[in-house]
Task: structure prediction
Amino acid sequence: ELKLDVRVKAATAARAGEAEKSLGVLAELGQTFLGDALKQIDKDTGNDVGMKDLSAIVTAMRDGLKGTKFATEGSESRATAAMPAERPIANAYLSAKRKVQAAAVRAQSFNNLKQIAIAMHNYHDTYGSLPPAAVCDKNGKPMLSWRVLILPFIEEAALYKEFKLDEPWDSEHNKKLIARMPKVYTLPFPTKAKANETHYRVWTGNGAAFDYLKGCKLTEFLDGTSNTLMVVTAKDAVPWTKPDELAFDPEKDMTKLLGFFTGEACPAAYADGSTRGLKKSINKKTLNALITKDGGEVVPNDE
Result:
């Protein structure tokens, strides 16, 4: 068995008696903490064998604290708790580690989107509208992505000044800058994306928040900025300077274009600047309602 042995050396026998009572309180607090943790673990377990092992370990730890033995001899107090050593500790540890790492990855992805959303709003405050989906030439042909246009608002003003906005993303000059993709456009976990490609993309056309030729004003979001998607994590990545966005077609299933890289949710930024995850179970109708800025739809609860 595995043992936890705590000894407290006090100045006097009376103080040792007080120390024993304090050890009892600590054991009770530990049981409460582990009990709360166990509820959350069991809620998230599903069919994950590692999480079931973790549940078994935490249960054994809680039961071990319940059976803590206390003793005081002279000026020394002692508390001893034990749990069986045959528990699946290795699997439980690895499962808990994966959970913590996944949480960190989700947090970083949402932080990236938050920075992008703030940059969009700062662009709007400066120019009176959100950026267009791309810088276009006089014939309306997209040349550079919106991700280039918001560079000054993500502390990349120097990089922005190096771009030639009257040339396409893959011109001899501009393509040299592709290798300098800001970190905020990088997903914090491995994907099939090539170097300097990003999954952060916007919807364009048919009432979506973005258009290639002009930027939209937030006052045009009649459905409400909190009900309209601004930037999503797409399934497929593109070179970050390339004006290649998600074409919104209400007749097709747009859910197939989303990337659920962090499990059951697709990290997304909304037009009000907030960030939330789109559920993997989201249906076509709900997603379409979130994509349009003035469609007048009621967003169902399966968001």
